Recover the amino acids of this structure.
């Protein structure tokens, strides 16, 4: 069955013509799926019963099922665990800010990048998410919360640049005028640094923010935390970031997870300043979220603050990521992991 929610309006028009239907049927169906957030053809009451039946035979509408929701008593952050039609699960996070609601989505089931501090990659990559599975994390959350989502960050499980074609289609559908029409400026895509794809994305000239997970200031140190550093050097990464800024005019975000005693020394701060100062950028410091499978520890609060102050003194735009949903948090990817462990423990297979 064809994945109808991953089609652009133009593609859907061509489909309707093939079925011998008028083009405006495509606009109606598109509108049902992407604006009214319909989850089945039966809801599409302005289509004839015959057309609805025809569609049901040919197309599948991706509609994720929430299997678990955790809500923070502190700040209202919610973590959703969604089941996909093949039984795999992914997690998404909904965060409330003064300026609007933000959703953090997953781009893959698992991840093959192997970053040492990250829970999402411990079991490797299961498969890529389709464009509609990425979209429906946002649609399902909008549907469940009955509140509009204004910001989207692709920072959940998975490496978006390792699922590049689906990511691009997802971005086009998410920002399309005939859909949820989320502003490109309110979307951030985070990558561990796959240089050729960063350059390809730059050439799309979208107004989205590119966030680079840097986490270390020398190739040697970065290789210890992130295997991807064996493929691309920090010099190549910085050139790609500069290129992204030249092509799009968008300031780069550098993510830097602070790990106690590993990358939080005065020397690290000085090296980071030297690296990023020439670029128009923003630095986001993330106190590392320890996972039980590894023995990384968070930097001391004083060390985090001192690190930030050093960057500020050098007039680098820097923030410390506020820890949302502290009480429901495991690190990224841990909700899914715990769910998998439980299913295995009660003798189930992967579902
Ligand atoms: N694969 C993409 C996006 C997913 S991770 C990337 O690498 O950017 C989103 C961010 O969280 C990345 O900067 C990642 O390195 C960071 N991260 C993952 N696990 C973490 C942990 N346990 N503590 C702190 N940051 C973590």
């Amino acid at each position: 069955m064809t994945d109808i929610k991953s089609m652009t309006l133009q593609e859907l028009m061509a489909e309707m013509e093939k079925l011998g239907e008028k083009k405006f049927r495509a606009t109606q169906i598109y509108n049902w799926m992407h604006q009214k957030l319909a989850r089945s053809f039966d809801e599409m009451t302005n289509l004839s019963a015959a057309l609805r039946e025809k569609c049901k035979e040919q197309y599948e509408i991706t509609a994720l099922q929430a299997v678990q929701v955790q809500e923070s008593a502190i700040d209202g952050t919610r973590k959703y665990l969604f089941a996909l039609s093949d039984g795999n699960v992914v997690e998404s996070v909904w965060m409330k800010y003064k300026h609007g609601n933000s959703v953090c989505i997953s781009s893959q089931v698992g991840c093959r990048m192997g970053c040492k501090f990250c829970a999402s990659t411990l079991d490797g990559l299961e498969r890529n998410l389709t464009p509609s599975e990425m979209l429906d994390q946002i649609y399902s959350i909008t549907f469940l919360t009955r509140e509009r989502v204004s910001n989207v960050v692709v920072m959940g499980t998975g490496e978006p640049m390792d699922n590049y074609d689906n990511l691009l289609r997802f971005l086009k559908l998410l920002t399309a005028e005939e859909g949820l029409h989320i502003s490109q400026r309110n979307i951030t895509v985070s990558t561990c640094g796959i240089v050729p794809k960063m350059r390809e994305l730059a050439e799309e000239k979208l107004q989205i923010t590119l966030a680079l997970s840097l986490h270390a200031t020398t190739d040697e140190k970065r290789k210890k935390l992130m295997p991807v550093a064996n493929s691309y050097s920090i010099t190549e990464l910085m050139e790609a970031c500069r290129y992204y800024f030249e092509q799009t005019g968008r300031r780069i975000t550098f993510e830097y997870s602070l790990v106690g005693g590993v990358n939080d020394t005065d020397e690290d701060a000085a090296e980071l300043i030297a690296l990023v100062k020439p670029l128009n950028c923003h630095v986001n410091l993330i106190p590392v979220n320890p996972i039980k499978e590894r023995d990384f520890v968070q930097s001391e609060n004083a060390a985090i603050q001192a690190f930030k102050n050093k960057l500020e003194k050098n007039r680098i735009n820097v923030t410390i990521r506020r820890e949302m949903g502290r009480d429901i948090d495991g690190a990224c990817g841990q909700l899914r992991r715990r769910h998998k462990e439980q299913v295995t423990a009660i003798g189930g297979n992967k579902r």
